[in-house]
Predict the structure.
Amino acid sequence: MRLRNIKGSRENIQASKYVVQEYREQKGKWRELFGNDHPIHIEIGMGKGRFLMDMATLHPEINYVGIEKYSSVLLRGIQKQEELQLPNVMFIRMEAEYITEVFAKDEVDRIYLNFSDPWPKDRHAKRRLESREFLKRYNEILVPEGVVEFKTDNMDLFEFALEEVEPAGWKLRQWTKDLHHDPKMNAGNVMTEYEERFSSVGNPICKYVIYR
Ligand code: SAH
C-alpha cells in the first residue's frame, strides 16, 4: 500500500504515543510496555491497520503490534487509534527485515501476514515476507506453539509461500485457495482492507496457517 506523501506524517508519527519510537530498546520488554503478560500478536505490513484494530477490539486479552514501513500509510492507522484509544494496540514504523532486533526469543505468540507485497521478480524473492529467509526470522521470535497466518489473493505469491514452508523447517496446519467458501477456515474470519477490496471484485482469497 502506498499513499501520496502526506506532509508532516513523519513528525506526526514521532509525536504519537501509539508508536514505539525506540523499538530496538523494547526487545524482550514488550510485556512491560503493555503492563500485562497477555500474548503478543503482530501484523507485518499492516497498512492502515484496520484488521489489527478490529482484532484488538474483539480480543482485549491479546496485545497487538502493527508493523508498517510507510509513514503515510501508518499515519492513517494512528489517526484511527487516536479515536479508538485501544489499550492493546501499538505500532512500529520499520522495515520488517530487522524484526529479530525488535522482539526477543519467544516474545511473540502469533504473526499475521495479510496481502503482502508480491515482489514478482525472481531476484526479489528474498524480500517476500513468506520467503524462507523471513520464516527463519519468525522462527527466532515466535513461541514454540506459535503460528504464522497468511492471507492473499495473489495465487503466484501463495504458491511460492506454500513451497517455502517445508524447506524452511515449518509445517502446514491448514490451507485453502478459497477462504470465503471454506466454512471451517472462514469461521470467525476478520477481513482486512485489501481482502474486502479484492474479494468484492471476485478474487478468491488464499490462506495458510503454519507452525514448527
Ligand atoms: N495488511 C493490509 C495492507 C496490505 S498492503 C491489508 O491486508 O489490508 C501491504 C502493506 O505491507 C503495505 O502497506 C506495505 O507498505 C507493507 N509492507 C510490505 N513489506 C513490508 C516490510 N518489509 N516491512 C514493513 N512493511 C511492509
